[in-house]
Amino acid sequence: MTDQKTTEFAFLEAFTAELSAKKLVFPTSLGATMKIRKALSQADISIDMVTRIIGTEPVLSAKVLHLSNSVSFNPQGKKITDLRAATNLLGFSAIRNIAISVGMKQLAENKYNGSLSAQMDGLWRRSLRVAALAMVIARKYTRLSADKAMLAGLLHDIGKFYILNRANHYQELFSTQQVLWDLIDHWHASIGSAILEDWEISEDIHNAVLNHREHHPGPTHRVGLIDVVTVADFLDAHFVNESIADLDWNTVPASFKLLNIDPDNIDELMQETRTELALVLKAIN
Predict the structure, then answer these.
(1) What is the DSSP letter of 246?
(2) Which of 21, 60, 238, 283 has its CA at a distance of 20 to 30 angstroms from the CA of residue 13?
(3) Region label for 2, one of left (φ > 0), alpha (ψ between -120 and 50) or beta (otherwise)
(4) Weakly modelled stretches of the chain, pLDDT under 70
(5) pTM (2 decimals)?
(6) Domain boundaries, the chain
(7) Burial class of residue 13 in the structure, from the number of CB atoms within 10 Å of its CB (0-12 exposed, 13-18 middle, 19+ buried)
(8) What is the pLDDT of residues 244-273, one digit of tens each?
(9) CA gyration radius, the chain
(10) Which of 56, 137, 59 is nearest to 98 (CA)?
(11) Helix axes 203-211, 177-198, angle to 10 degrees
């Protein structure tokens, strides 16, 4: 067995043990979690702002959704799939408590070195951008829930978050950055899928997260979250580099056409996304 295969086996063995023990709590950005906790303590905060704040942190978002579908809070068993409905059901106090528990868990368990901290923060910021893009796309071009689309965008790289976090605890396994990122590229989708199943995330979000990179809609396909995430993920590099003018419209994913996103309306989409992203960042700064 090669050294890299040995590394993968050891890591996946540890992941399986943690999954079985229900210990999949890990941070995206510790600084963001602390800011979320502070923001949720504001006396006059609106439900729209609370929803936006929760939607900046994948673990917190998943925990809020999971709790809103628990017997304790939802005895009628009516399925809740978006953060606004979950916030209405749980109330601000419960959400503040969840945010504090997530933050304290992160403080207790995670200390990153400079390189890993920068990578984790960069991945979190990319997820925020894709989430903002997905939210605006869903709101402008579909009848899908914008909050649900934002959550799907936020979670689309959740497997990468997990591997990066655990790399901090298994540094002896990763001799080089190349070994780490080879493992991330190869396993993040499968690990992300297992995490979403453990968190009981709805099937349409799960499908969008797992399959958006390989999505090739057929003639009978109906527009869904997977199309929104496909386009949002594809556009992110052009959004952050402000290079929409360089976009080759002959090679964009088929979901662009299904959503009616074209050269005539793309600039408006980018501007609305900048506004939404600014609101999100302002909410947690």
Answers:
(1) G
(2) 60
(3) beta
(4) 1-4, 7, 22-34, 100, 103-114, 175, 283-285
(5) 0.80
(6) 3-284
(7) exposed
(8) 999 999 999 999 999 999 999 999 999 999
(9) 19
(10) 59
(11) 160
Amino acid at 130: V
Here the tokens at position 215 are 């999505």
3-state secondary structure of 66: helix
- Cα 166 to chain centroid, rounded: 17
**Are 65 and 55 in contact, with CB atoms under 8 Å apart?**
no
Instruction: Give kind and range of the element (H or E) at residue 53.
Output: helix 47-54
Total length of the chain: 285
Token pair recorded at residue 221: 């396909």
The answer to whether residues 191 and 163 touch, using CB atoms and an 8 Å cutoff, is yes
> Where would I find the beta strands (DSSP E) of the chain?
none
What dotted CATH number matches 3-284? 1.10.3210.10
DSSP code of residue 141: H
Please identify which residue in the block is written with the tokens 């303590």.
41
Residue type, position 227, single letter? D
The count of C-alpha atoms lying within 13 angstroms of the C-alpha of 112, restricted to the half-sphere facing its C-beta, is 19
Q: Which DSSP category does 223 fall into?
A: P
Residue with tokens 């655990």: 166
State the Cα angle at 83 between 110 and 192, rounded to 5°: 50
Residue 63: closest CA among 212, 249, 201, 189: 201
State the CB neighbour count (10 A cutoff) for residue 113.
9
Alpha carbons 278 and 186: distance in angstroms, whole number: 33
Cβ–Cβ under 8 Å, residues 283 and 49: yes
Handedness of CA 51, 57, 62, 68 (dihedral sign): negative
Which residue is associated with the tokens 């939210």? 135
* Cβ-contact 99, 33 below 8 angstroms: yes
Say what percent of the chain tops pLDDT 90: 34
Q: Which two tokens stand for residue 141?
A: 């071009």
Element (H, E) at 241: helix 225-241
